[in-house]
Write a structure and sequence with these properties.
The complex is a heterodimer. By secondary structure, chain A is α+β, with helices and mostly antiparallel strands. Chain A has ten helices and six strands. The longest helix of chain A is centred in the middle third of the chain and has 43 residues. Chain A has a four-stranded antiparallel β-sheet with strand order 2-3-1-4. Chain A has a two-stranded antiparallel sheet with strand order 5-6. Chain B is α/β, with parallel strands linked by helices. Chain B has a single domain, classed as 3-Layer(aba) Sandwich (Rossmann fold), CATH 3.40.50.300. In chain B, the strands form two sheets. In chain B, strands 6-7-8-3-9-10 form a six-stranded mixed β-sheet. In chain B, strands 2-1-4-5 form a four-stranded antiparallel β-sheet, with helices on one face. In chain B, helix 6 links the parallel strand 7 and strand 8. The chains are: A alpha+beta, B alpha/beta. At the A-B interface, helix 8 of A face helix 2 of B.
Chain lengths: 297, 225
């Protein structure tokens, strides 16, 4: 340990460069991991709450609405059906426009449509339910989450691909910088390595101090990156609390386990720490082996 | 036991460093390698470190045959051999104790055993009072003693010395030779040198090399070319 610290102290600029690159790589990787997990959680949340909203024409009467409700109940494909009357819709509208009295003055309950909010028992029933009610008398418009899910799926897929490219690039750059830094340090110790070889040191014995040094750099960078990540999560917590009002919990299925993504908890922080640690270990081990290999042939 | 059987070493571009050399060295034998520069003395020592492999013939150290081997096996071979060079090859950033102990740490000795053997080696070479000093604080003679101490610890049975007195004044040379005289009781020593005085005075076996060939092998010889 002392030898490792001494080596780091003797080459402060190289150590700082390697540490900075590792820190930023791990920080960005951690942020990407959190964002991806969060998006996946959101996607799974939407997917597990399939919902169709049927808007009625303003002139539709109660009997037409009741008939649609009956039809849906008999289909066996629906769960809860919530009837939002014109008055209730106006109440909701009032809440949304409380800061804009002019908009409120121009609107009354009469011009707002009544609607039915229908929870489907399975996401694949959504198109069937929409088809079933769209031609019923009094129905004006049917909205369901197909588009939202498709958009979210496409977004998640794109983010995943971008992340993969970005991850690979970050990893490649980190390995290059760390390998170069270590190679410089090894070059300074070329004579020492020659003596060690003459005395019968094995490759592993010669590599050990360089591997220890890069792992120590990795540990420091991981700790710093995770401290910043936890800070970011705490800061985001209050912002997201307001944004996700009504969503009790977001979770993702990972390695057969259901992991809570929102609200942020200790398990998620530990998982982020584990991911960054594995990433850091991979970078430091590959770099130290690549750097030492050149001098051990 | 060290055994060379019809060993030739040919370098690329046709240079021949050794040409069909054969000799045996018994355990705890002291052998001088003498000859003009380029005669093949260092090549013999390098062969014994598996730093060079024979183009023809066989080199054996006990049952270990020198062939192109993986680094792990070369490392194991070198752990049985102590080396002393003209330029000392001492680690400048480590103190004397650590320089000597390194030879044992590589072999995985316990701290207790390291303390014991390093102390004995430093006593033998007369530099126990310098254990905590750094190489920059020592004279050339003292540095060569450090190299000898490093070569003997860790149960190394063979010592290869490549012109170890080349950088030393006559007085220090004799002090160093006294240490080698002490070591020959327990170690096999191959000593390459140009120093006629020490070869003539000690009357040990002498292998005379010329143009890659052994031209003389005398049991109690002197320096003659």
């Amino acid at each position: 340990m002392n030898e490792t610290l001494t080596s780091m102290r003797r080459t402060p600029y190289q150590t700082f460069a390697a540490l900075s690159v590792l820190f930023f790589t791990l920080l960005l990787s951690g942020l990407l991991f959190i964002s991806l997990t969060f998006m996946q959680g959101l996607l799974e949340y939407v997917e597990t709450r399939p919902r169709v909203i049927v808007y009625f024409q303003t002139k539709a009467d109660e009997s037409q609405i009741a008939a649609v409700q009956e039809l849906l109940k008999n289909s066996g494909k629906t769960g809860t059906i919530t009837y939002v009357t014109k008055e209730k819709a106006f109440e909701i509208y009032k809440e949304f426009t409380e800061n804009d009295p002019l908009l409120l003055e121009m609107t009354s309950a009469d011009i707002l449509p009544a609607s039915l909010e229908i929870d489907a028992t399975k996401p694949e029933y959504l198109p069937e339910i929409a088809e079933m009610v769209s031609n019923q008398p009094g129905v004006d418009e049917v909205q369901f989450q197909k588009d939202i899910i498709n958009n979210l799926l496409s977004l998640t897929s794109n983010v995943r691909k971008t992340t993969l490219v970005f991850f690979s690039y970050l990893m490649f750059m980190s390995i290059i910088v760390l390998t170069t830094t270590l190679s410089f340090k090894i070059a300074l110790k070329r004579e020492e390595i020659g003596i060690l070889k003459l005395l019968g040191a094995t490759n592993m014995y010669i590599r050990k101090p360089f591997i220890s040094e890069s792992i120590l750099l990795g540990v420091i960078a991981t700790a710093l990156a995770n401290m910043v990540l936890i800070g970011i999560l705490i800061l985001m917590n209050s912002f997201l609390s307001g944004y996700f009002t009504g969503i009790g919990m977001l979770s993702v299925d990972m390695l057969g386990l259901s992991l809570s993504v929102w609200p942020f908890d200790l398990t998620f922080a530990i998982l982020t720490l584990s991911v960054t640690t594995i990433f850091s270990l991979f970078i430091t081990l590959v770099s130290s082996f690549a750097a030492t290999n050149r001098y051990l042939k | 036991m060290i055994s060379f059987q019809n060993v030739s070493v040919k370098y690329p571009f046709g240079n021949t460093a050794l040409d069909s050399v054969s000799f045996d060295i018994e355990d705890r034998e002291f052998v001088y390698l003498v000859g003009p520069s380029g005669a093949g003395k260092t090549t013999i020592l390098r062969l014994l470190l598996n730093d060079v492999v024979p183009s023809e013939g066989t080199v054996l150290i006990d049952d270990f045959e020198i062939t192109p081997k993986k680094f792990r096996q070369t490392a194991l071979l070198r752990q049985h051999v102590g080396v002393v060079f003209q330029d000392f090859k001492i680690l400048t950033d480590d103190n004397i104790f650590e320089n000597v102990a390194l030879s044992m740490r590589i072999k995985g000795f316990s701290s207790h055993e390291i303390q014991k053997q390093v102390k004995e080696a430093l006593d033998l070479t007369g530099i126990s009072d310098k254990a905590q000093k750094f190489p920059a604080q020592l004279s050339a003679g003292e540095l060569q003693r450090v190299a000898i101490a490093r070569a003997v610890v860790g149960n190394r049975t063979i010592i290869l010395a490549d012109e170890p007195t080349g950088n030393l004044d006559p007085k220090t040379t004799w002090e160093v030779m006294k240490i080698f005289k002490e070591l020959e009781k327990t170690k096999t020593i191959l000593f390459a040198t140009h120093n006629t005085d020490i070869v003539n005075s000690m009357k040990r076996r002498v292998l005379v090399l010329k143009d890659g060939k052994i031209v003389k092998d005398k049991k109690k010889g002197g320096y003659e070319l």
